[in-house]
Amino acid sequence: QKEVEQDPGPLSVPEGAIVSLNCTYSNSAFQYFMWYRQYSRKGPELLMYTYSSGNKEDGRFTAQVDKSSKYISLFIRDSQPSDSATYLCAMSAVPPSGAGSYQLTFGKGTKLSVIP
Amino acid sequence: NAGVMQNPRHLVRRRGQEARLRCSPMKGHSHVYWYRQLPEEGLKFMVYLQKENIIDESGMPKERFSAEFPKEGPSILRIQQVVRGDSAAYFCASSPRQTMNTEAFFGQGTRLTVV
């Protein structure tokens, strides 16, 4: 079982639809949860950052973390053609030694197309 | 405020040659993470460096790959004797702290093609 599972899609929705993206993970040590957006041939751009469980909202985006189920979600309301991109979930744990790395473990990404 | 700069953006190397990928962090950032994105795969952690120190290289292949982050100048990811399987996009991210949080930013990547 991979540490982070994410359905690669592709996912195609009409403009204005609500989009739901999600990831499951197996490592209970993960404490930090992120969603990145990556346009073709570009670097990942951080969309949402959450520590531990709970919900976070930013404009049209809502991130949810359920640590008991090891499940995270990203919702996009009123989706726009400009939201067409690949969405990557990522997570990290506190390093065992305080000075270690907060390396991110990524899902494979879900490719989203929003059709006008 | 310039972002994280990676160069070259595209690099073509023949099998057996060396590849040098550069990452200039954002101003004030002294922590650099390198990730590799293979075709149809997610990003995979390679190495975490602070100025003049390799902190965590647990994701680096044991042979042919090395990284440095000198006191002056960019961080360098070096791949010796490249093989076709090294073809990928290589991204670096810089941060003012250890953590990869809202203050950390990725560069646009270097796309390495080995022919």
Helix fraction bin of chain A: under 10%
How many runs of DSSP E, i.e. beta strands of chain B? 11
Q: What is the general shape of chain B? A: globular
- Let me know the number of strands of chain A: 11
- The dominant shape of chain A is globular
Question: What's the mean pLDDT score of chain B?
Answer: 95
Q: What is the first-to-last residue Cα distance of chain B?
A: 36 Å
- Element-by-element helix/strand order of chain B: EEEEEEEEEEE
Describe it:
The complex is a heterodimer of chains A (116) and B (115). Chain A is an all-beta fold and 116 residues long. Helix content of chain A is 0%, strand content 55%. Chain A contains no helices and 11 strands. Chain A has strands at 4-6, 11-14, 19-25, 30-38, 45-51, 54-58, 61-66, 71-76, 85-93, 105-106, 110-115. In chain A, strands 2, 4, 5, 9, 10 and 11 form a 6-stranded mixed β-sheet that branches. In chain A, strands 1-3-8-7-6 form a 5-stranded antiparallel β-sheet, with no helix packed on it. With 115 residues, chain B is mainly beta. Chain B is 0% helix and 49% strand. Chain B has strands at 5-7, 10-13, 19-24, 31-37, 43-50, 53-56, 65-68, 75-79, 88-95, 105-106, 110-114. In chain B, the strands form 2 sheets. In chain B, strands 2, 4, 5, 6, 9, 10 and 11 form a 7-stranded mixed β-sheet that branches. At the A-B interface, strand 4, strand 5, strand 9 and strand 10 of A face strand 5 and strand 10 of B.
